[in-house]
Specification:
The structure holds two protein chains of two kinds. Chain A is an alpha+beta fold. Chain A contains 16 helices and eleven strands. Chain B has a single domain, classed as P-loop containing nucleotide triphosphate hydrolases (Rossmann fold), CATH 3.40.50.300. In chain B, helix 3 crosses helix 4 and helix 5 runs parallel beside helix 6. Chain B is α/β, with parallel strands linked by helices. Classes of the chains: A alpha+beta, B alpha/beta. Chains A and B meet through helix 1, helix 13, helix 14 and helix 16 of A and helix 1, helix 2 and helix 3 of B. The complex binds adenosine-5'-diphosphate and magnesium ion.
Chain lengths: 445, 227
């Protein structure tokens, strides 16, 4: 049961509905904004640190000028231009730069799977294969062949059409520190072999294995695709959502015929990962010189994803700081006003304070009584403010590109803000430490 | 019980000094029934506040049971007011947010008395002042006389040695005032010391003696007129 003096305060708070409601709203808005601002900046900082740790941001990406500059140029014109063509041999440039830890190629790729119920293999009627390499490369597979494949337990027939992945050189696995959960990764020698080998990401393997097969049983089996049979040699440990759904096949420079032709359109990007991001600039300079002597001026461009990401992060941090500053200013103004209203409430209580003292209250107990009022306000304001901050901060964070911001900062922010509200509520309660009870008693109620 | 020696009280009104009390020496003995009388502004309330250690004097000494309590720390003063003194005011001064019984329970909460005991004691006190049927009423639902009886019950909640009543009948019609007087007199017969401010000469005559104030000073002729 509450003691009677506390009941007085709480009932006064309840009876003055409008004033108390406005007080709580002011505090809730202030705490909500401040908490969301705090959460935004903390999550921005945490997110930035985290993405900067990604292997992606220890890399330089080298691509040919044509790809970067002339994306809009019709493909046929490009043939007659003498642009540099990068190959895996150019990865040897890594030996010139002492700080390069791994060099590799990672090209987007796609496999078109043959499913049991697909019966239209060729291009649609009237559209003969043109220059588009994908169509040209596709195997024509007859229904008899599919039936035979279905009967063969060493052949996997998927129930979906397409999977995406990467053609990579082995350095990719080293750089991302990806290991095989089952089977093996491919090696340098596979880059020149004629077999089609693939390694599957964790969730992709899960998907292909289906319900009635363990994913390790996929090893050694062949996946039927229109690009040919793909022998599954390994399954990766889970790394990240984006890689787990992908396949990985060995990057081949000079595949015969159509693939060689393809290389001319699909520019190869070389990636050089350094051991410490500090050396990105010096390594870029070294590699730049070397590629210039190889291919001539302005033939390749070197991009530094980290530098770009850092710019973006600096901008986001700046905006977050501004938001924090504005919300803190708003919160402060709200607190000053709340303190003022509390002060006038306390002054209206002056005569009552005198009576309480006559009945045995010490100045300290009076001060604690008003502290109770400030606490009630602070706690209810903090709860409402935190509820407000949750959608607000998640909206602001998604606008800043942060996916799953931690709610810890909202809780911490709400606690800090509640403490500050209490502190400001303390100012009026201190007023009574100075006055005489007789003085208080004489004031009109 | 209480001895005042050369007590004075000066208010500083930004340059001009107001002497509310000048050189007051008096003694109140255990079991006394004293009336303080005098014209408006003569310092009666100020004296009551000093007696009740609600206010501090600007000169002189205050002895309570032979202890000099002129400069006691706030917490000690609060404890003495709570446990040994009971206050009754002209305008009742009940808390409008609290019911009659809660008003009576309030001083006991400062004495650290548990809720259950507080409640039992409050019920008993309200019965004594004839308000057992009004316990859960808020003060606004009570008549003036009833409010003052709740206030008396409240002043008695910690079994005080001294009741300080500043014009307790001042806001009441005479018949209701008479009820209050009777309650105070019966308390005094039970051994409680009563000091009461009054404007009513009839009430003054019923007291054991009258302390007459004029312009903040005692009127000596009336001071020792013991009955
Ligand atoms: N807080 C104060 N500040 C200045 N003067 C005061 C204050 N309180 C009382 N006084 C003055 O002290 C004198 C005595 O007041 P009071 O004790 O209330 O008289 P009474 O109760 O006899 O009417 C009056 O002149 C009054 O104006
Ligand atoms: Mg008076």
């Amino acid at each position: 049961m509450l003691k009677e003096p506390v009941k007085i305060i709480l009932r006064r708070f309840r009876d003055r509905t409008l004033e108390s409601g406005l007080l709580i709203i002011a505090v809730a808005l202030g705490i909500g904004a401040f908490t969301a601002g705090l959460s935004l900046i903390m999550n921005t900082a945490e997110f930035s640190n985290e993405i900067m740790r990604s292997p992606e941001y220890k890399e330089l990406v080298i691509s040919t000028r044509s790809e970067a500059d002339e994306m809009e140029t019709p493909v046929i014109e490009k043939l007659v231009q003498e642009t540099a063509v990068l190959t895996s041999a150019d990865l040897d440039a890594a030996e010139l730069a002492p700080d390069v830890e791994w060099a590799y190629i990672q090209n987007n790729s796609r496999l078109h799977l043959v499913t049991a119920d697909s019966n239209n293999f060729g291009p649609p009627e009237g559209m003969e294969p043109s220059e588009g390499e994908n169509v040209m490369r596709r195997m024509q597979i007859s229904e008899e062949e599919i039936a035979a494949a279905e009967a063969d337990s060493s052949i996997i027939i998927a129930d979906f059409d397409e999977i995406s992945g990467y053609e990579v050189t082995p350095g990719f696995f080293n750089s991302w520190d990806i290991t095989a959960a089952a089977g093996s990764l491919f090696s340098e020698s596979d880059l020149t072999g004629t077999d089609n080998l693939i390694v599957l990401g964790d969730s992709l393997a899960e998907l292909l294995a289906g319900d009635d097969m363990d994913k390790s049983e996929l090893l050694g089996k062949k996946l039927l695709s229109r690009e040919g049979y793909q022998t599954i040699i390994g399954i990766l440990d889970s790394v990240s959502d984006s890689y787990d759904q992908k396949f990985f096949s060995p990057y081949k420079d000079q595949t015969s015929g159509l693939s060689g032709f393809r290389r001319m359109f699909m520019d190869t990007q070389l990636r050089f990962a350094v051991n410490d991001p500090e050396y990105l600039d010096s390594t870029a300079a070294l590699l730049g010189d070397w590629f210039e002597t190889q291919f001539g001026e302005d033939q390749v461009i070197i991009s530094n994803p980290r530098a770009e990401a850092e710019q973006l992060i600096a901008r986001n941090t700046g905006i977050s700081l501004l938001i924090l500053f504005l919300s803190a200013a708003g919160f402060f103004i709200a607190l000053v006003n709340v303190s003022n209203i509390l002060m006038s409430r306390v002054l209206r209580m002056k005569k009552n304070v005198g009576i309480l003292m006559a009945l045995g209250a010490s100045k300290k107990s009076i001060s604690n009584l008003f502290l109770t009022e400030a606490l009630v306000l602070a706690v209810s304001g903090a709860v409402a403010g935190a509820l407000l901050a949750v959608p607000l901060s998640s909206y602001m964070e998604s606008a800043a590109g942060i996916e799953a911001g931690s709610w810890v900062y909202i809780s911490i922010g709400a606690v800090i803000a509640a403490a500050m509200t209490t502190l400001f509520g303390l100012i009026p309660s201190r007023q009574f430490m100075k006055i005489d009870p007789a003085q208080a008693m004489r004031s009109a109620s | 019980m209480i001895k005042l020696e050369n007590i004075s009280k000066q208010y500083d009104l930004g340059g001009t000094k107001v002497d509310a009390l000048k050189d007051i020496s008096l003694e109140i003995k255990r079991g006394d029934y004293a009336a303080i009388m005098g014209p408006s502004g003569s310092g009666k309330s100020t004296l009551m506040h000093i007696l009740g250690i609600l206010d501090s004097s600007t000169g002189g000494n205050y002895y309570l049971e032979d202890y000099d309590i002129t400069a006691l720390p706030d917490k000690e003063q609060a404890r003495i007011r709570n446990k040994h003194f009971g206050f009754i005011f002209q305008s009742f001064n009940l808390f409008p947010e609290l019911s009659a019984i809660e008003n009576v329970m309030l001083p006991m909460s400062y004495a650290g008395i548990p809720q259950k005991t507080r409640k039992e004691k409050a019920i008993q006190l309200l019965q004594e002042v004839g308000l057992e049927h009004r316990m859960t009423h808020l003060p606004t639902m009570l008549s003036g006389g009833e409010q003052q009886r709740v206030a008396i019950a409240r002043s008695l909640s910690n079994d005080p040695d001294l009741i300080l009543a500043d014009e307790p009948t001042g806001n009441l019609p005479s018949d209701k005032g008479e009820e209050i007087m009777q309650i105070l007199e019966s308390l005094n017969r039970r051994g409680v010391t009563v000091v009461m401010v009054t404007h009513n000469p009839e009430q003054g005559k019923r007291a054991g003696y009258v302390i007459e104030l004029r312009d903040g000073m005692l009127t000596p002729a009336l001071e020792v007129q013991n009955a």
